[in-house]
Amino acid sequence: MAVKTAGVSPAFTPEQLQSVRGTLRSPRRLKTEVLAGLVVALALIPEAIAFSIIAGVDPRIGLFASFTMAVTIAFVGGRPAMISAATGAIALVIAPLVKSHGVDYFIAAVILAGIFQIILGLSGVAKLMRFIPRSVMVGFVNALAILIFMSQVPELLGVPWLVYPLVALGLAIVFGLPKLTKAVPAPLVAIVVLTLITVFAAVAVPTVGDKGDLPDSLPALFIPNVPFSLETLQIIFPFALAMAFVGLLESLMTAKLVDDVTDTRSHKTREAWGQGVANIVTGFFGGMGGCAMIGQTMINVKASGARTRISTFLAGVFLLILVVVLGGIVSVIPMAALVAVMIFVSVATFDWHSIRPRTLKMMPKSETIVMLATVIVTVATHNLAIGVGVGVLVAMVMFARRVAHFVTVERTVKTVNAHETATYVVDGELFFASSNDLYTQFEYALDPEHVVIDMHASHLWDASTIAALDAITEKYHHHGKDVKIVGLNEASTLMRERLGGKLGAGH
After folding, report:
1. What is the C-alpha separation between 160 and 150, in angstroms, rounded?
2. What does the H/E/C string look like for 428-495?
């Protein structure tokens, strides 16, 4: 429901701001989407060229991929305002295939990766996002911010000294202009101002044109020239599968981040199979494939204020127009302007609250370790999938270690019906991490002839626990003592009846 505030334009709910129809009816909101798309398109050009070089292909392949990915995902994706294009992670995964078998096999792998993503999306892989802890998400965001900044460092080394004041001016504009007005995206103003300065002052600094040749024609349908055989499948299969997983992980993590920034929910399953469709379309137009881009998405959502699919669609359209029709103008844009924008994105993306002394003091050490592990591995490998994977693994180990200490065993000895009986009350969740120590919690030699193990306050979760109970009862029998296990809930009883005595005591 729209809320009106004195002296300001009507406000909208986050969900209403995502409406394409509503935005088309609002000139102010439409202007925001159009300008955001333009800024993103300008920022995409050098990135796409750079990623093409990493992959070992012609810059046109990366630029066309960014166009087809953005336009396609605008229609089929599940996260409005998120930008998908050619990415460094995909370039790193696919580069060895380009080097060993050429572009045709590479394009075939892109198409197969899209098919895998559709299958994974429809099979519910997006639901696995719930198992990624917040500490891993914070590490993911911080690592991305660091990688974005690091990617700009080469643009500041071995360059004319005039680059530095230009970058400083660009930073002053992107950080300072929003405090004065938000009518025009600050990154766009920075790009225009710095371009005008370098052109009219005839300043010799690196430009977008120095990155590579821009295409002078539209992308055309491309059918990879590879044998349709099992041998071809064996060659491209591992690369396609890696591309599918890396692309989905980056896209779903980025979607989750945008959800938080915009206070809205996105359709993760649709986003997953939508990425697959976009990659298939991209492959058949000779593009290098891609996934969601955190830097350009943050430019679109956070720096420019875009919220709908319009900005994503226009980013692709503007990109094509800029490189094909206005290539001469785009080529003179100084890299200093784009460096300033990307540094701004890096600073805005980093979760500064996570490293404040007060936060670190308050946060459990295990959470901080998980966050740091995610950051360090991601930055070291330049691979977000590996970083997040290691972060989740560390989080699982920390969780298992913590939960393992929650199990307690209390022993009491009483005389019942003239028989002395030792009763053990086991309290806690029993699984592989906690049940391994369970065996050592009993006084096998000192206990009387009758022993009762009361499990009413615990639950058996896996075969390791059943094996531990078997080992305990076997040990008591070895000492000639009678032991009874009581109080198991229904699920635990069924598991013990199914597996008890069949696993081998102590195994």
Report:
1. 19
2. EEECHHHHCCHHHHCCCCCCCCEEEEEEEEEEECCHHHHHHHHHHHHHHHHCCCEEEEECCCHHHHHH
Instruction: Provide the pLDDT confidence category of residue 4 given band limits of 50, 70 and 90.
Output: very low
User: Which CA distances in Å does 466 have to 13, 151, 424, 436?
Assistant: 53, 52, 17, 11
Torsion of CA 278, 284, 287, 290, to 10 degrees: 30
CB of 53 within 8 A of CB of 94? no
Contact 89, 243 (CB under 8 A): no
CA-to-CA dists, residue 445 to 438, 440, 467, 502, angstroms: 16, 12, 21, 26
Residues 6+ apart with CB under 8 A from 205: 159, 160, 162, 163, 166, 198, 334, 335, 336
Entry pTM: 0.71
In angstroms and rounded to an integer, the radius of gyration of the C-alpha atoms of the chain is: 29
Neighbour count for residue 456 (Cβ, 10 Å): 11
Question: What digits encode the pLDDT tens for the residues 171-225?
Answer: 999 999 888 887 777 888 888 899 999 999 988 899 888 877 778 788 899 999 9
Please list the residues that pair with 85 across neighbouring strands.
291
Question: Distances from the Cα of 314 to the Cαs of 207, 258, 271, 341, in angstroms?
Answer: 23, 19, 19, 19
8-state DSSP, 500: T
**Token pair belonging to 434:** 């906690």
CA neighbor of 178 nearest in space, from 305, 26, 34, 308: 305
Q: Which residues pair with 51 in a beta bridge?
A: none
Backbone angles phi, psi at 219, to 5 degrees: -65, 145
pLDDT in the model for residue 59: 83
Buried b (16+ CB within 10 A) or exposed e, 297-331: bbbbbbbbbbbbbbbbbbbbbbbbbbbbeebeebb
Residues comprising the chain, all counted: 507
Report the DSSP pairing between strands 419-430 and 450-460. Answer: parallel
Higher pLDDT: 302 or 69? It is 69
Instruction: List, as one string, the DSSP characters of 294-335.
Output: HHHHHIIIIIS---SHHHHHHHHHHHHHHHHTSHHHHTTSBH
Cβ contacts of residue 239 below 8 Å, gap of 6+? 93, 94, 96, 97, 109, 113
b/e for 420-439, b at 16 or more Cβ within 10 A?
A: ebbbbbbebbbbebbbeebb
In sequence order, the β-bridge partners of residue 457 are: 427
Pull the structure tokens for residue 2: 């729209």
Q: How many CB atoms lie within 10 A of CB 486?
A: 10
- Kindly provide the b/e burial profile for residues 141-171, where b requires at least 16 CB atoms within 10 angstroms of the residue's own CB: bbbbbbbbbebbeebeeebeebbeebbebbb
User: Which residues 6+ apart lie within 8 Å of 33 measured at CB?
Assistant: 23, 306, 307, 308, 310, 311, 314
292 bridge partner residues? 84
- Return the number of other C-beta atoms located less than 10 Å from residue 358's C-beta: 8
**Other beta carbons less than 10 A from residue 10's beta carbon:** 9
